[in-house]
């Protein structure tokens, strides 16, 4: 499998690296967070100053220059393309009915500020009450249904600003 990584340096320089590029580095660990790297005939001294492993971000000092580096693998890139980035504002701007049903209750009004997982409305479908919650923080822009209304699958229910 061809592994590809997107590397962002200091928030602006983007590089694409393959697994083979990384394997070709001649790196020797000299202490807990220090490395000596030989690449293309040039010698580099590298030190990991800080890291947030789960976020894949690192602060690295290379030959006395400090760089902030973010690394995304192919799964991270796919998640970003789909709009499901972790730790960022989700890009969901509307809620549609997941199935046909009846609106039993509406818990919000236009202009209300909601937080992620706040209950928006209750949809009765197949004799079950389904609480539809907010997928993100935001402000309610449109409520496209009324209490007691029958809705079809994929019908617009709520829209965010």
Tell me what you see in this structure.
By secondary structure, the protein is mainly beta. It has two domains: 4-82, no CATH class; 94-160, OB fold (Dihydrolipoamide Acetyltransferase, E2P), CATH 2.40.50. Helix content is 9%, strand content 52%. A seven-stranded antiparallel beta sheet has the order 2-1-7-6-5-4-3. The radius of gyration is 24 Å and the shape is elongated. The two termini are 41 Å apart. 7% of the residues are buried. The model has no long low-confidence stretch (mean pLDDT 86). This is Acetyl-CoA carboxylase biotin carboxyl carrier protein subunit. It holds the Pfam family Biotin_lipoyl. InterPro entries: Biotin_BS, Biotin_Carboxyl_Carrier/Decarb, Biotin_lipoyl, Single_hybrid_motif. It comes from Gelidibacter salicanalis. Keywords: Biotin.
Give structural attributes.
OB fold (Dihydrolipoamide Acetyltransferase, E2P); 161 residues; mainly beta; single chain; 4-stranded antiparallel β-sheet; 2 domains; 15 strands
Q: Report the oligomer.
A: single chain
| End-to-end C-alpha gap | 41 Å
Helix vs. strand class = mainly beta
Widest β-sheet, arrangement of strands: 2-1-7-6-5-4-3
Overall geometry: elongated
Radius of gyration: 24 Å
H/E element string? EEHEEEEEHEEEEEEEE
Strand content: over 45%
Helix content: under 10%
Query: Tally the helices: what do you get?
Result: 2
């Amino acid at each position: 499998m061809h592994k590809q990584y997107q590397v962002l340096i200091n928030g602006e320089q983007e590089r694409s690296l393959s697994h083979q590029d990384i394997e070709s580095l001649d790196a020797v660990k000299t202490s807990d967070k220090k490395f000596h790297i030989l690449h293309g005939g040039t010698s580099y001294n590298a030190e990991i100053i800080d890291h947030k492993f789960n976020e894949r971000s690192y602060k690295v000092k290379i030959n006395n220059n400090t760089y902030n580096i973010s690394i995304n693998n192919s799964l991270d890139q796919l998640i970003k393309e789909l709009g499901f980035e972790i730790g960022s504002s989700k890009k969901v701007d509307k809620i549609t009915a997941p199935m046909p049903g009846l609106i039993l209750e509406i818990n919000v009004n236009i202009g209300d500020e909601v937080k992620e997982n706040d209950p928006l409305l209750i949809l009765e479908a197949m004799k079950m009450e389904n609480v539809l919650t907010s997928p993100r923080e935001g402000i309610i822009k449109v409520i496209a249904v009324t209490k007691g209304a029958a809705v079809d699958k994929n019908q617009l229910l709520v829209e965010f600003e």
